Amino acid sequence: MCGIIGVSGVHDAPEVIVEALRRLEYRGYDSAGMTIYQDGRLVRVREATGTHSVELLSKHIKDFQGSDSISGLGHNRWATHGKPSQENAHPQFDCSGRVAVVHNGIVENFLELKEELLNHGHVFSSETDTEVIAHLLEVALIETDRIDFALAEVFSKLRGAMAIVAMETSRPTLLACVRRTSPLIIATNDGEGFIASDIPAILGRAKHYYQIDDGVVAGVELGEINAFKLDHEPAEPREFVVTWDLSRSARDGYDDFMSKEIMEQPQAIRDTLAGRLQLWDSSGIKLDELRLDLEQLLGVNKIFMIGCGTSYHACMAARYAIESLCKIPVELDVASEFRYREPKLDPQTLVIAVSQSGETLDTIAALAEASDSGAISLVVSNVVDSSMARMADAVIYTHAGPEVCVASTKTYLAQIVALELFAIYFAKLKGTSTAKEIQALATALTDLPDKVEQLTNRFAEMIQVASKVEAFERFYFIGRNVGFPVALEGALKLKELSYLPAEGFPAGELKHGPIAMLDPSSVVVAIATRGRLWEKVMANLQEVKARGAKVLLVANEGDQQTIAEGDAAFLVPQTHPLLSPVLDTIPLQVLAYHLARFRGFDVDRPRNLAKTVTVE
Ligand code: M6R
Predict the structure, then answer these.
(1) CA-CA distance, 26 to 155, in Å (whole number)?
(2) Measuring from each residue's beta carbon to the nearest atom of ligand 1, which residues come in under 6 Å?
(3) Does the N terminus or the C terminus of the chain have fewer Cβ atoms within 10 A?
(4) CA–CA separation, 616 vs 339, rounded Å?
């Protein structure tokens, strides 16, 4: 989705803006633009050449030479209102070019606002909802000479989830920002002020990072922040600590972020487990940040797990552990559906929302619904102090580090691990599992990073196996029990990256319909590691083979009996059955990676996708 950067008092402003936009590319975008205050006016450049836009923008850096060029705005646009084009790219200006605005999200009532502005003689040069904000600021600036005060007035007229940054020429060092649900952070560093939609944009440049609440307007000028509520009552921006380092947001010699992040998976799991598994301690699990009242937690009699895309698959993979250890009913829902089916929620219901970014609007909306109904909410997020982390009663952070590739890999594995930690914690609290059962899972979790590493170290070997199906164009993924979410995630990864038709099914469902699609031109990827339903998967494989489909297996190392049933096999180490989704998914990430690269596609920035989906 759109990426925002604003800088004030920064002597290399054009370079910093372009670099921030480069680092925000991973969010997904189709056009980009920037404006710098120079020689008394706002100079603007915009490019709309898809994912090359920022590269083209960088060629304009040399055009900004003025000694007063220390403030400006930049934006990567992911089109919602109006096609990707230079005119629709941000920053958007008012009639006179005095005001510049960059914006993420949607102004739901923009049509009525635009009509009113047109009736008053404003001239529009784009199809965007964003331009409405610039013209409204132009009007508000008749009454006040401060852009932050003007923004407060305008913001109360706008409906929808959004983040806005604006500046104007009479005081160009003063940037104004405000947010509702959409992410936005402020940062400072010795006389420099920054506003960005995501931490990596300014990592390494800023020293102090701040969050502002929904509906709080902040004026950011040369490293000073003046925050206030819409009624002009003062507000305190909350400082938060960023532990990510720049090297984890850089490619570090890898061809792309996806392969780097696949290779970082052992560390992501180590960091997510660190300090939390106290095997020597009778309490077993330490989840310091959980901040839930234990009595309240003990009263929980039902759990809902919600998320979108890969995060939804993490919910599905971890449900088996929670149900089996905690003996409690767990329902699953895609977040965008959850809120519309009127689930029965009360203070004895725990809603677990899972999100890498913590900013996905569908999940935020579902979480808000759950909280309004009195349910207890727990968020699993990779981003500290994300919107969801702040909304929920409790939070468990995955410590996977920044994930830049649009397709989730390391954060997915970390989510499953975090949820399994919660399963152990809750089971111990409720006394629903034996010490032996808990110990077995806890020990397997401790061994997990090394097993993941054994697998990622064999990246090249997995590519070899994947290359055997390069020529195929239709893929079906099957699995049973904990293998089912693996099949869904494998199919999602392949669709996202290689644009090949791919579907995931429970293996037992094949014969109820999907089997009609199988023929020798199709590939069936079967999750056939040894688990409770291994024999049944084997039986389903016979049905597949009888239809002549090519069979690619995910099987355990040394399991010759299974390996003999396929045309090729990815081999994974054995682990506790509840953790097998963690290992079994890795070869499928590599499969999607290879087939996308084989077809010449950009694995980090697949078409049409955004890293953080901030629209419903
Ligand atoms: O940030 P979130 O985990 O809430 O994002 C949810 C989905 O948009 C995300 O998992 C998406 O499916 C990824 N592109 C998967 O690779």
Answers:
(1) 28
(2) 308-311, 355-357, 360, 363, 406-408, 496, 609, 612-613
(3) C
(4) 12
Higher pLDDT, 244 or 133: 133
- Cα 192 from Cα 449, distance rounded (Å): 40
Q: Across 223-356, where does the E strand assignment appear?
A: 224-229, 238-240, 277-278, 284-285, 302-307, 330-334, 349-355
465-511 confidence digits (pLDDT tens)? 999 999 999 999 999 999 999 999 999 999 999 999 999 999 999 88
Taking the C-alpha atoms of residue 519 and residue 173, their distance in angstroms, rounded to an integer, is 65
Give the model confidence (pLDDT) of 557-587 as tens digits.
999 999 999 999 999 999 999 999 999 999 9
DSSP annotation of 234 reads B
Whole-number Å distance between alpha carbons of 316 and 355: 13
Hunting for tokens 């809902």 — which residue is that?
304
Q: What is the pLDDT of residue 507?
A: 93
- Contact criterion met (CB below 8 Å) for 195 and 10: no
Give the tokens for residue 545.
Answer: 């083979």
Return the number of other C-beta atoms located less than 10 Å from residue 331's C-beta: 15
Give the rounded percent of residues in the chain with a pLDDT score beyond 90. 75
Look up residue 126 and give its DSSP letter: S
Which of 354, 357, 384, 408 most suits a substitution to test ligand 1, by most atoms within 8 Å of the C-beta? 408
Domains and CATH numbers, the chain: 3-242 (3.60.20.10), 257-453 (3.40.50.10490), 459-598 (3.40.50.10490)
Q: Which of 78, 181, 308, 602 to mutate to test the pocket of ligand 1 (most atoms within 8 A of CB)?
A: 308
- How far, in Å, from the CA of 171 to the mean position of ligand 1? 39
Long-range contacts of 568-577 (CB under 8 A, 24+ apart): 568/465, 568/468, 568/469, 569/465, 570/462, 570/465, 572/455, 572/529, 573/451, 573/454, 573/455, 574/529, 574/530, 575/444, 575/447, 575/448, 575/451, 576/440, 576/441, 576/444, 576/445, 577/482, 577/531, 577/532
Cβ atoms 5, 195 nearer than 8 A:
yes
In which residue are the tokens 């697998």 written? 455
In this structure, how many other beta carbons lie within 10 angstroms of the beta carbon of residue 59?
A: 11
Residue 435 to residues 388, 428, 443, 448, Cα–Cα distance (Å): 33, 8, 12, 20
Q: CA nearest 446: which of 314, 585, 270, 214?
A: 270
Q: What are phi and psi of 93, to 5 degrees?
A: -110, 165
Residue 349 banded pLDDT, cuts 50, 70, 90: very high
2 is an active site residue: yes
